[in-house]
Structure prediction request, 130 residues.
Amino acid sequence: MAFKRFVQVGRLCVVNYGAEVGKLCVIVDIVDASRVIVDGPTTGFERKVMSLKALSLTKVVADVSRGIRQQKLAKALEEQKVIEKFNESTWGQKKLAAAKRASLNDFDRFKVMLLKKERSLAIKKAIKAM
Prediction:
């Protein structure tokens, strides 16, 4: 099986751990075989050198040049709709759903629990009727 996600300039990444866990960033330059310079002007991520072990590569790639400045990167990401492409992917949908679940208050979680019980009961009735 061949690799499909290569470390390349413009590749959108998700931070795995650290203070910025879960944030999106773009590879701006490659330092060596294990470190890259990343930046996320539209996601609130500062430009810094990060280890590839701390990043997960996504399928989305922006068409940008090596060492692009922050303002031009933000403009390119906006024009190419890179963040929107990620949010339309399965990974992005899961990330948005997890953020929505995390923002629920106690009463909203209670309502979700009741809806799950109601759905489960309806499924059991449908199976019993077969």
The domain at 11-88 is CATH 2.30.30.30 (SH3 type barrels.). The helical segments are 70-80, 82-88, 90-102, 106-129. Residues 106-129 form the longest helix (24 residues). The two ends are 43 Å apart (CA to CA).
